[in-house]
Amino acid sequence: MPANKSRVEDLLDELARGARVLRVFSQLGSESFPVSNAAHHVLRIVLRQQPIHAAAVAHYLGIGPGVMSRHIAELESAALVQRVNCSTDARRQLLTVTETGEALIQERDRIRGERLTRLLPDWSDERLDEAISILHELNDAMGRGVEEAKSGAEVATGGEAK
Hints:
Blueprint: H1 5-27, H2 37-49, H3 54-61, H4 65-77, E1 81-85, E2 93-97, H5 99-119, H6 125-156
Antiparallel strand pairs: 1-2
Helix pairs in contact: 2-4, 3-4
């Protein structure tokens, strides 16, 4: 049975509210960190999947190459990532996280994790797993919707996405 339209709208409202709150929550106490919250998220993805091509990170996050280039420039200028040559294709460079970058991630994640843990004292591992699973499913579904919309835009414009 399809979801009730007003309930879907409620979900979208909560997701929008969550995005705003998460942005502010993630920045609390990080004023001394050398990069933006968005660049920090890119750094975490690189650490998890390194070595990785910048285009793969951009695709995973659903951001364009220009935005990705700005994040990488910010991370490089803070000496948090470095480019290494790809062993299978000399034309490509891959990103890896420096020791300084790993230390920054650990510290920032510790601060954010401790703060959220204090705010959710009654949440069990099972409840966290359920929340993670639901958010993962929502992100995947919305990501597919973005890809479908981009594909539709390419068809509508004769193959050129806008």
